[in-house]
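2024-03-11 09:14:02 INFO worker-7 job=invfold-0412 stage=load source=structure_tokens
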């Protein structure tokens, strides 16, 4: 996480840190009302370079940072005066002030790298408060654009980021001073680097308790919304993505609060971020750990949203509703539910939701019904005649419904019985053929039928009756790895593996 200036060709000064600090101190006027002389910049730059080395950082004492506390207090007063008289046209004075402020931030930024001692010294001498105040004043001057202003802003945020890394006491002080206004101001800054560094500081400071704090503050909800929107508008900013996936998603109340408040476009953003978290191949959860990529209560909330809004997907039966956002949300929710229920060990609690099973079977019935009433994306197609719809958002929807049914019924007799009682078995068998609108639907149908019939004689009997009536044939069952046997005038469905 540490930010430092790249090493240039200039070697680090040979003077010790105490002597460099003494040189700076000699140039600082005793009267705070006096301006700092321009020559003070050179020894500060020398100290900045010195702090690139770990040994030099370890040499620093609290007195070094007391000098910087004095300098930044003077800079804060000077910037405040310049802000009040900004129209007077003293841009040169302002530039000089910003250059010195930026260099102080660079020096302090380097001093914090992997050095808890210096982090503590900086907190003790009270450098955090003037830093945040300076950044707030600089934010007010966004109308005055200059590279020097950007450098001061960015170096100040980098300093706060390095100051917070691995130091809970410092994080707490930064949070109390920077939340919510500084974070909100910087997240809405026009400069992308400033936004990036702000996200770095925010991510470093956040924990479960501080994330929960966002719920208790009107601007906290706004801050969370802003971060999520950054993920959509600036997908290359990894820090924003990490804030959402590693912090926000651990607070179900926060996510449900912003989800409920948002419009459909914003809801789609958060659902896509949840999907990205769930599909992260690099995500490693230790064996035996109770940690989940998405908390139980959040998944229960999303399952309830699916149950409530799922019929909106049927709008896709009309060509005029091909871009309907309500329908797209249903698809995103289904994708998330399929992914989570595939991990049976971690998300088995979703099987204890009878309404979810009922909703999914009913929706499978409705999609078949509308698909037969007219030619649309829910109509089974084996001719590729709907080539213009092959990229339709609802491609694969029925296959995912069947997949979810199979996942919910895995090793769960109550759900298996529920599917039979709802007439779900014939619906699933009806999807055993290739369907261009539902890639792999036959494979998911095979999986689900095998799950439903395993150690469930009642479900086996339903399929036996369908064979007797000619609704299902042996070729279809053979493709599923099942075989029908007759004993004493009764038909029994068995796995081919057991028959062999």
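2024-03-11 09:14:09 INFO worker-7 stage=emit residues=500
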């Amino acid at each position: 996480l540490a930010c430092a200036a790249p090493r240039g060709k200039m070697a680090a000064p040979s003077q010790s840190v105490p002597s460099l600090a003494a040189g700076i101190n000699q140039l600082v006027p005793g009267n705070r009302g006096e301006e700092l002389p321009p020559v003070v910049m050179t020894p500060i730059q020398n100290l900045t370079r010195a702090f690139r080395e770990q040994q030099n950082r370890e040499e620093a004492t609290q007195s070094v940072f007391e000098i910087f506390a004095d300098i930044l207090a003077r800079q804060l007063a000077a910037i405040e005066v310049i802000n009040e008289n900004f129209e007077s046209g003293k841009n040169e004075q302002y530039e000089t002030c910003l250059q010195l402020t930026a260099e102080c931030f660079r020096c302090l930024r380097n001093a914090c790298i992997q050095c808890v001692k210096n982090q503590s010294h900086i907190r003790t001498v009270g450098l955090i408060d003037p830093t945040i105040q300076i950044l707030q004043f600089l934010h007010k001057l966004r109308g005055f654009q200059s590279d020097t202003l950007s450098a001061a802003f960015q170096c100040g945020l980098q300093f706060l980021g390095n100051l917070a890394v691995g130091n809970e006491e410092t994080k707490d002080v930064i949070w109390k001073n920077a939340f919510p206004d500084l974070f909100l101001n910087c997240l809405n800054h026009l400069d992308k680097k400033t936004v990036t560094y702000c996200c770095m500081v925010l991510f470093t400071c956040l924990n479960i308790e501080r994330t929960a704090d966002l719920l208790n503050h009107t601007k906290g909800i706004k801050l969370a919304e802003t971060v999520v929107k950054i993920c959509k508008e600036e997908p290359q900013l990894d820090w924003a993505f990490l804030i959402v996936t590693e912090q926000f998603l651990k607070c179900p109340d926060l996510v449900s609060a912003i989800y409920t408040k948002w419009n459909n476009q914003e809801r789609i953003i958060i659902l896509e971020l949840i999907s990205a978290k769930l599909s992260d191949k690099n995500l490693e959860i230790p064996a035996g750990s109770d940690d989940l990529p998405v908390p139980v209560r959040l998944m229960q909330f999303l399952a309830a949203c699916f149950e409530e809004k799922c019929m909106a997907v049927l709008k896709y039966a009309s060509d005029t509703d091909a871009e309907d956002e309500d329908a797209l949300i249903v698809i995103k929710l289904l994708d998330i539910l399929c992914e989570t229920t595939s991990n049976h060990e971690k998300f088995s609690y979703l099987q204890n939701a009878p309404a979810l099973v009922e909703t999914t079977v009913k929706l499978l019935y409705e999609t078949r019904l509308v698909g037969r009433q007219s030619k649309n994306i829910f109509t089974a197609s084996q001719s590729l005649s709907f080539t213009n719809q092959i990229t339709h958002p609802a491609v694969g929807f029925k296959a995912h419904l069947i997949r979810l049914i199979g996942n919910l019924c895995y090793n769960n007799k109550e759900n298996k019985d529920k599917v039979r009682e709802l007439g779900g078995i014939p619906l699933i068998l009806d999807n055993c053929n290739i369907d261009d609108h539902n890639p792999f639907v036959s494979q998911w149908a095979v999986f689900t039928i095998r799950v439903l019939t395993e150690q469930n004689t009642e479900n086996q009997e339903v399929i036996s009756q369908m064979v007797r009536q000619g609704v299902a044939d042996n070729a279809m069952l053979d493709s599923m790895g099942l075989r029908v046997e007759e004993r004493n005038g009764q038909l029994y469905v068995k796995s081919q593996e057991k028959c062999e």
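2024-03-11 09:14:09 INFO worker-7 stage=report msg="Confidence is low (pLDDT under 50) at residues 8-12."
2024-03-11 09:14:10 INFO worker-7 job finished
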